[in-house]
Amino acid sequence: GGGGGGGGEGEKQDDDGGDGDSGSGAGLGAAELAAAGPHPMLVMVYIPEYLMPTEFLEFLSPDLASVAFLRVFRHLDRPTRFCALLQFRDVASAAGVLRNYHGRRFSSFEEDHCVMGVVAELRRAEGKGEAPESIGARDARALPHAYVCAEEDPPNCAVCLERINLGGSDSIVSTLCIHMFHTECFTRCSGTPCPVCRYHPGETAPSACQQCGVVHDVWVCLICGHAGCGRYSNEHARAHFLETLHAYALETHTQQVWDFAGDGYVHRLLYDKSSDKLVEGNDTSGGDDFVRPQEPFQRLSATQEEEAVHSKLEGLAQQHNFLLMGELRRQREFYEAKVQALRQQGKKKRDTKPADVIASLRKQRKRLEARATSQEERVKELEEERNFLRDLNTNVRANEKDWEDQLTKTTKELEALEQAAEAIPMLEEQVGRLMGRLDEYSTSAN
């Protein structure tokens, strides 16, 4: 794993944990933890950018009490990913966190997995081309004070303003912007990466034209901040000038200022004391802003040097005053035109004849009366329908008992008919037997 700190310094960690696809096991990093000393350190790499620090702490909340110090770094090779360095109070807590979180998904809605490893060695590079200074994991107990805070006095929590007990019983969190908090204080500040400076680690979107969305050849107004495209695109920056008379725009690619009124770039002007005029200065001195003498090898005395600097400052002040006066004059003309337009609108409203206003109000009243009449007719229809349904419901309820009695009577008659139908086969059998006997009597009599 690797990460980046602030102030132009880079940090690297060597971890011995495994990849993110492997499952967690009881013996994961056991040998490395045993060799890491009584206060081992773990590193969590490739933390996704969408995961806020408070959400990351919530992810570790079941075992957060065992973390003595946590610091977030940015990956040097993948700026959209982060890594976190965790120092634990004992080996058992570190082993439990490594076993429970390695290979675990950060969220059930995302595919990113937690990748953790044991820090065997921590190296801090002070600058380019220098060999990194190394410390072992056994010497990492003094890491927070030496690694984060270069002052003699311990820092204060940026939320509760209480002293942070470095290396003591406090759980400490350090963000990318190197602000330090108590863990309990930081977890209460949700919704922002840092509650102090509001630093957001995400990549900033490129400037784009507010009308057409072009991201190249963008010009930003120095008066109101409007972003528009240049003359080689759709010229929305010039359209903004014609609409508002904001003359100065910054070209984002070259960082040069364009004057739409003068139709040219605004260059550094120098004050010529002999002629009391502003002249364009050629930047041929390699970035040296002091006025050079005419003789190439002549040195200025202290008084002449002071006068040259003073003349230059006077020229810059006068240049600034000229630019400010011109811009204020354009702003005054613009807003005076706006005020005049508003006055014309008010005068037009005042000049409207009362008879026209009365006629318009009468037409509006007639429309409202017609609408009210239509609504009243609709209400009457609904009331008639409601009365009909109410009478129908009353009749149904009144005849309900009669219908129930008739249903009971019909049910009894049906049952009697069913009983009679069941007796018919038996009677037919009896009639058959009687007919047989009569036939026998008739035969014996003959």
UniProtKB/TrEMBL annotation:
Keywords: Coiled coil, Metal-binding, Zinc, Zinc-finger
SUPFAM superfamilies: RING/U-box
Leader peptide range in chain numbering: none
Region: Disordered, residue numbers: 1-26
InterPro entries associated with the record: BRAP2/ETP1_RRM, RING-H2_BRAP2, Znf_RING, Znf_RING/FYVE/PHD, Znf_UBP
UniProt GO cellular component terms: cytoplasm
All residue ranges annotated as the UBP-type domain in the record: 192-285
Coiled coil feature spans: 325-420
Presence of keyword Zinc-finger: yes
Molecular-function GO terms, alphabetical: ubiquitin protein ligase activity; zinc ion binding
Protein name: BRCA1-associated protein
Source organism per UniProt: Phaeomonas parva
Phylogenetic placement of the source organism: Eukaryota, Sar, Stramenopiles, Ochrophyta, Pinguiophyceae
